[in-house]
Amino acid sequence: MTAAPGRNRPRRSRRGRTGLAGELILLAGVVTTVAVLLTGLVAWHTLRRAAEAQERDQLSRQATVLSRVPALSTLLYEGEQRLAGANGVQIAVLDASGVVSGPAAPVLDTAQRDVLLSGRALSATGELRGSTVLVEGRPARRGRAVVLTKPLTDVDRAAARMRRNLLLPLGAGLAGAAVAGVTLARRIARPLGRAADTASRLAEGERGVAGAAAASGPVEVVQLERSLAVLDAALARGEERQREFLLSISHEIRTPLTSVLGYAEALTDDVVPASRLPEVGRILRAEAQRLDRFLGDLLDLARLEADDFRLDLAPVDLDLLVREAATSWRGRCARHDVVFRLEHPGTAVMLSTDGFRVRQLMDCLLANALRITPAGRPVVLALRAAEGAVEVQVRDGGPGLTEDDVAVAFERGVLHERYRGLRPVGSGLGLAIAHRLASRLGGTLTARAHGPEGGAAFTLRLPATGRDG
Asked: Exposed site from 16, 44, 76, 141, fewest CB < 10 Å?
């Protein structure tokens, strides 16, 4: 595990702020309480209706049984009116002539008597001696009817019993939901807290910390921890490449700078013969130009990474542009005994783009190709119209690339470090600059390990619609 200088930096205080687990527990408690209260409220009112339905059903069954008794008057008046007042139930008998007798007689009005005399069942609510009662009536034999009443206070007492029985399940549900909420909150918060701590350590410069965390918890949390592990690895790779790039830059600058300082000291000490002064001057100029090119590449790369990088868009004839480039590069290739070849349609290929930047990109690729192409081998600049795009290709007859090289071809300094001392190399920034410039132009730059000429092939693809803004 690698740690940056900020490893021992103190953690930022979380005092005064509620943690995720606490917030989830509070939220779960609120939601559970509201749910239980709403359930209890609904059940509270539902139980009242259920109790009334239960009492009414029991009363109706009793009325049905009594309606089938042959001698209602005997049942009513004998045995000291045993039904009257039993369990709060009051009875009344309606004869065929409409006369009502019994303790519950006052509850019936004319309309209700007509319902019973017509042979229909009666289910209603009425007033009996100042109290509200349930009324159930059933037609009996010989045109008679039996009516039973029961006070609503009995319904209230039954509902109260049901409600008391409801309190225990509601309390148990509330407690169970609270326990479940706490468990769930901790299950979610623990891996999230671990992920947050990992992210904080990554931000402070530690590396190799994400892989040590065991991925557990919900799917999303597992994905988060895996993403942090990927980020951790990517940061480590990026920082390692950055270190290698800085080392490479130091080497590239130090070499010509050492030469310049050595000759400068020799000139200062007056140890250089007068006959060698022109030679020393040429060496100093060459080394200074080498430094200037390298610093120019660094500045180009920095500008390309800036958000305010400017493009001057205008209609450009790419066929004319590649012909102009060919005029310049044909002579350069000839000085190195390299065969230059141009492939182009010979007709105008118009595109809305920045012609200066396209030419800069072509020059960068051609310089890279010429550097590694041996004498007698070709360098090819090709232009062709593709479906929905225009392609500019630079191919060479050099040693080519491996598939591993293609994967890192546009990363700063990677190929430079890989092939330094094995083949001619530049500053290590040229291909990175070309790739970023292609992206700025709205196109893509891709590499192939081997083209038709045997060496590498780089293809710039620009959309035929040009680029807006």
From this structure: 16
Structural domains in the chain, sorted by start: 19-206 (3.30.450.20), 240-305 (1.10.287.130), 314-463 (3.30.565.10)
Positions of the chain with pLDDT under 50: 1-15, 77-82, 84-85, 212-213, 466-469
Query: Which tokens sit at 33?
Result: 């309480």
pLDDT in tens, 236-260: 777 776 665 665 556 556 656 777 7
pLDDT in tens, 286-313: 778 767 766 766 676 666 665 556 778 8
Q: Which two tokens stand for residue 357?
A: 């930047």
Question: Which residue, among 122, 156, 127, has the nearest Cα to 139 in the 3D structure?
Answer: 122
In the sheet with 90-94, reading across from the earlier edge strand, the strands are 100-101, 90-94, 145-151, 131-139, 122-128
How much is the pTM? 0.47
First CA to last CA distance, the chain: 46
Note the pLDDT of residue 80: 34
Phi, psi of 84 (to 5 degrees): -65, 120
Q: C-alpha angle 437/441/447, rounded to 5°? A: 55
Asked whether the beta carbons of 132 and 152 are under 8 A apart, the reply is: yes
**What's the CA gap between 50 and 98, in Å, rounded?**
33
Q: What CA–CA distance (Å, rounded) separates 205 from 238?
A: 13
**Helices 219-268, 277-305: inter-axial angle, 10-degree rounding:** 160
Distance CA 330, CA 156 (A): 107
Give the contacts of 344 (CB within 8 A, at least 6 positions apart): 319, 322, 323, 382, 383, 384
- Amino acid type, 358: V
Q: Alpha carbon of 94 to those of 31, 59, 62, 104: distances in Å?
A: 56, 17, 16, 11
Contact 424, 338 (CB under 8 A): no
In this structure, which amino acid lies at residue 350?
A: M
Distances (CA, A) of 35 to 30, 337, 400: 8, 86, 70
For β-strands 378-386 and 339-343, DSSP reports them as parallel
